[in-house]
Fold DUF4340 domain-containing protein.
Amino acid sequence: MKKLQFYLSGFLALQLVLAAGLFWREHRQQELQQQSEPLLALQQEQLQRLEISADDNSVTLQKNAGEWQLPELHSLPVDAAKLDGLLDKLAEMRSGWPVATTSSARERFEVGEEKFQKRLRLYSDGEVVAEFFIGTSPGFRWVHLRRAGDDAIYAVELNSYEMPAKGEEWLDKKLLAAGEPESISGPDYQLRKVDGEWQFVAGDGELDVDKARELASAFSGLRIQKPAEEMPEAEPLEIRVATGGGELSYQFLRADEKYFVRRSDREQLFELSRYDYERIADLRRPQLVRTSEAEGESQQTAEGSEENEEATKS
């Protein structure tokens, strides 16, 4: 009996110690949270320029007339959603408790002036207002970070891949997407949407509506890869697309197993994937006409539906 009381007393004491430890930990976390401060004490609207460096690569993002652009890449527009995501993450970073403060730790965590994985500089009114060194990762979606001029090294919730140091990776890849097409004029066909349904403007044959929708979707989701380095020697294929905002003319080119596209409102020629090229530029009227086989399948489907309805009624 005494032995049982001894064990129970020991168990109770252990519970009290654990409870006290948890209380202290929670209290300490709340205290640190109250003492922490934003690592970037700047409103996003005040930012005018970002510079990201990594190894031998670097990229500059510049705000002009309210639009973020890539000045070193023909001043093409930045992917706004991607940039907003990074700026939101930077705004949420707080100091907390540093994981290290020594100069040797800078080398170990790769957040030194000479040895770093990424360096991020932010400008406002032409001056550097914040500079961060991004280093190794202590865990999934976390990195070690140090502010320039500060010894403290923090672990913050951030992904290194969210800060690419190449302009092509910041480029708005949907720059030439057509929105919602209302008519499409190709090499040997003209399509128009009437009352929400696609149809041929003229000519014989019944339109395969599904293929017309796929073509319209290809224009709506068209993605470029990067600016072309030079103009290929190839005959362009022109396709005109009308939307609620007006008519756009696309030129598609193929040369040396590479695929290119240009739109009438921009001079720049871009590379695009073979997949996007083929599902737009290789399409001709015979492929848009509903075949007898497709009609037969459609008729069989309709007959099957009618039989099912009659069987249900009976």
The first strand starts at residue 49 and ends at 54. Residues 2-35 form the longest helix (34 residues).
